[in-house]
Amino acid sequence: MSQAAYDVAIVGAGIVGAACADEFARRGMRVAIVDRDLVGGGATAAGMGHIVTMDDSEAQFALTRYSQQLWQRLRPELPSDVEYEQCGTIWVAVDEEEMTEVRRKRGYYGQRDVPTEVLDSQALRRLEPNLRPGLVGGLLVPEDAVLYPPCAARFLIERAQKRGAEPHLGRSVTALGRGRVRITDGSEITAKIVVNAAGTFAAQLTPGVEIKSRKGHLVITDRYAGFLRHQLVELGYLKSAHSVTSDSVAFNVQPRRTGQVLIGSSRQYGADHREVDGEILTRMLQRAQEYMPGLAQMSALRAWTGFRAATPDKLPLIGPWPGDDSLFLAAGHEGLGITMALATARILVDQITGTKPEIPIEPYLPSRAAKEHAHA
Ligand SMILES: Cc1cc2nc3c(=O)[nH]c(=O)nc-3n(C[C@H](O)[C@H](O)[C@H](O)COP(=O)(O)OP(=O)(O)OC[C@H]3O[C@@H](n4cnc5c(N)ncnc54)[C@H](O)[C@@H]3O)c2cc1C
Is the CB of 99 under 6 A from ligand 1? Predict the structure, then answer.
């Protein structure tokens, strides 16, 4: 067999593929990164950019927290257009039942060295005066941050390029595996390792991978400096994000450096069209205004949609794909791919280079999905 042109060919130049390209190049490997579009143009361009520690499961916590710490370490190198701000998250509680969840979350994070602060009603109002009166409190997680995802992806690709990585943009991949990436024009890129980082399209390129698209809407307002200081998320978000059957909306707003407010969020399965859905958008905005009535006075500049890559067990697929020694997956990050990108790249490259990963990798191994597929 002729020699492979690259050590690694990564398909997908979203935030996950970009982080992988950066990490492989940092470890001295010859990297090709292939995308049919531009860098960070898929879900990465549509995402909110909340770098958030989450605790739905131990595995989700481990990956989000580790990745958040990697973003923190990278912070001094990030250019200003990445707009990294450690604004913190406040999980907002509307009643005593949700305050019980605040205390549970505080306990969970506290045991794992994540700083938090429980806010009563007054403290919440002091920190975010534009929330409606009558909310009972919340949990401040000060190390959570926000950034602008497409510029973060571009930064990572450019850093990889400085270390020799070669982007192949505008090239659509029809098949991958067995050390090859086939392009629509019939040409092939050969590599010892092929990484499928094609987001919601990963399943099309690797049969047997189970990923569903989960549509989301976002709205950005005009500039209203000082209106909002933290990423605010309703505690009910956890319930709606877990729903796998029905459409859901939740209060989730983000302050941008420009003074704009980014308003989310919605989740829909089976909605395959890119078009903004007026009904769900209205529900989403109404939900936001229930928490922040002042949003109703703001002018919205743009609304858009994007698709999250959802796996059945809500964890990403990171590692070797059974049956093809050359093929690895880095996909299926649902609503946390911006947060998880750096840790995904680290543990993937650790696996390939035989380095001991800093967190247990078993929960993310694609073999679990392949097994489920075989028994389905
Ligand atoms: C509304 C919304 C809000 C979100 N908010 C957040 C948030 O606050 N925090 C967070 O952490 N995450 C958030 N996410 C999730 C996050 O955006 C995604 O998990 C992340 O962007 C996934 O990155 P990716 O690189 O895997 O996929 P993508 O960014 O989709 O990249 C995949 C790339 O593969 C390319 N590709 C696909 N098929 C082919 C092919 N056949 N040939 C060549 N190229 C191909 C595409 O062109 C694309 O560039 C949100 C998502 C949505 C939709």
Answer: no
